[in-house]
Amino acid sequence: MKLLHLVLFLLLGAVVAPAASTSHATFTTKPITVTGGRYVLDFQVFWFSDDFPGNSAPGRVELVDAGGNLTGAAGGSIYLDGGPQAWGGPGTVTVLEGLAHRHGTGGAVADGTLNARWDITGLGDGAYTLRFFSYTTEELGQAASTVWTTTLDAGGGSPPTNNAPNIAWVSAPAGADHGQGYYIAARGHDADGNLAQVQVWKHGQPFAYAGGGDGTQSDAGNWTSDAGPQTVTFTAQAFDADGAASAIISHTVAIGAPPPVFFQLTTLAGPGGSVSPGGQFAAGTTTLVTASPEPAYEFAGWSGGAAGTANPAGVLMDGPRTVQANFVLRQFALITGVSGIGSVTPGGTYPYGTLVTLAATANATSRFAGWAGDSTGSEPVTLVLMTGPRSIQALFEPKTAQTISFPHPGDRPSGSLPFLLEATTSSGLPVNFAVLDGPAVLLGNQLQITGPGLVTVQASQPGDGYYLPAPPVVRSFNAIAPVSLRYSGAGRTLLHEQAGGSPTHLVLETP
Q1: pLDDT averaged over consecutive 10-residue blocks of the chain (511 residues)?
Q2: Closest Cα to residue 157, out of 307, 42, 13?
Q3: Range of the domain at 208
Q4: What distances in angstroms separate CA 253 from CA 203, 234, 264, one per listed residue?
Q5: 319/455 same-domain check
Q6: pTM higher than 0.85, yes or no?
Q7: Counted domains in the chain
């Protein structure tokens, strides 16, 4: 090491007076290959100066991947007052040794040496390059004119051999009373300072966990208690950051039998029923509880310390128990149907006491005749109180056919006064009239002829709740215009005969 210091001092000893305060950097490279995601590098930083420097660049080493990308960096500085300092990542950088030879301005080191270790972790395997930087800092107006900072490779390679951690019980009682609390703990130890976690299991289930502590030692433990009699098995194991594991250790704790115990059973009932009373019962026994619904309700199931719908239900008294019986309003089915041609509101399932409205609707050829089953009456809308299952039928009957008698009115003069159209139905329902064609208008049931021509009139009856529409009857007649008679006489000869004193007139037609 002394030889290396001397060589560097001779190489860097020449001083060039600076024209201004500047810093120049150069670096050397070293190719490395990373396997296992880790590389450990020891590096050295040297400082030399002409006199008492005001400042100098820290030592620096960089890690570059195969693509030329900066992956990490580390470095170090040393001061007489503050001592050696190191930094970097990924991984950790630790100071191995630091020596300052002379005090510079502001606590800077004029001549010094720093040895550090960079433990690079989290790398992908492959080729990388290390770059070791050297700086020349020239200062103007200071007693010292030049400072040299040089970083050198002091060795590196594969990580040190990793040893698995050890594990041992630090609290492991041989037995405990029924329900008594006891503490179980195991201690992991790693001489490499690489401890990551300590785990304890109870009957194969996670029980206690601790991290790596200071990396060398850590305890994992927890309080627990168990009902007896039984034997409880605990296991423990330690792991380091590299995945190495200790042996698995095991320990059993014998739990004693419990003294006789009685537990309180409290029973509750929701609205709509009652439940059998509770009381004190021996631990481990099973007692029956019975739910009794009121007439309008039915049992819906248990909650609390019992579940399901079994009635009665068994309750295991392994502790204080509160059991509630729950009830709901009874549900009843309403079935609806029709007799004849028509429809009715569909049925369904309804809670006790529900008032359901049913409506019957006849089609065009039928009429509602009434209700049958669990409802009566002739109104097409009825109310049904659901206090039990119901079956109701809407009754429909066919409507009665009807016919129209419409005598032919006969031909009429076009200038006649309005006349009454007369027609009757077999049902006795009124007849409706309509002019389908021709010179006529209706004035109520009277027909007014407005001119000569053929007049067509229809008689109809639309029916009602009991009768079907009647087939319409159509009548046609002539509205006749008035006739004017004109006479043109032919040429005649008047003969006058007088005999017996009385004249006689004879007319002779001229052919």
Answers
A1: 35 39 84 86 83 72 93 84 82 84 62 86 90 82 66 69 91 95 97 92 96 93 96 97 93 92 94 95 94 94 94 94 95 95 95 95 93 94 95 96 94 91 94 95 93 95 93 95 61 51 47 42
A2: 42
A3: 166-255
A4: 11, 8, 30
A5: no
A6: no
A7: 5
